[in-house]
Amino acid sequence: xxxxxxxSWVKTEGDKLAKGExxxxxxxxxxxxxxxxxxxxxxxxxIVPEGGCAPLGSTIALLAESEDEISLAKAKILTSTSSSSxxxxxxxxxxxxxxxxxxxxxxGVSPSNVGPSKIWKETFTPxx
Length: 128
Known about the structure:
By secondary structure, this protein is mostly beta strands. The protein has a single domain, classed as CATH 2.40.50.100. About 10% of the residues lie in helices and about 40% in strands. The chain contains 1 helix and 10 strands. The protein has one helix spanning about 70-80, and strands spanning about 5-10, 15, 20-25, 30-35, 40-45, 55, 60-65, 90-95, 100-105, 120-125. A 6-stranded mixed beta sheet has the order 2-5-7-10-8-9. Strands 4-3-1-6 form a 4-stranded antiparallel beta sheet, with no helix packed on it. Strand 8 and strand 9 form a beta hairpin. The longest helix is centred in the middle third of the chain and has 10 residues, at about 70-80. The radius of gyration is 13 Å and the shape is globular. The termini are close together. This is PDC-E2 5-like protein. One of its GO terms (molecular function) is dihydrolipoyllysine-residue acetyltransferase activity. Keywords: Lipoyl, Transit peptide. One of its GO terms (cellular component) is chloroplast thylakoid.
C-alpha cells in the first residue's frame, strides 16, 4: 500500500468527536476500514476530500481540542507549506494494512511528550 483513498468522511468539519468514534472510511488493498478518533475534540479541518488519495504519512485532517481552536487550526494549516513544517506537538493516527494506531509524527515527537493544551491533538495520516 503506497497511498490511502478516502471513501467517505463520517464526520464533517466542526463536528464534535468522542474517543473511539468513527471519523472516516479509508480504502486499503484488502478492505474498507473505519478510522476512529483516539481523542475527544473537534474535527477542525479536512485536508483530503472524499474520493481523494493521499500518500502514506501525509496529513489528511486535523482535530482541535476545543471549538475555539478550530479557526486557529485552520489558519495554522494554511500557513504551513508541508507536513514537516507543522507544529512538532502534532499527534498522528496512521492507517496501516491491518490496524489504525497512534504514532509519533515525522518530527519524531513521542505522543507521551504532547501536552493536553495544544491546538492539534491529532492528525489523520495514512501510513504503511
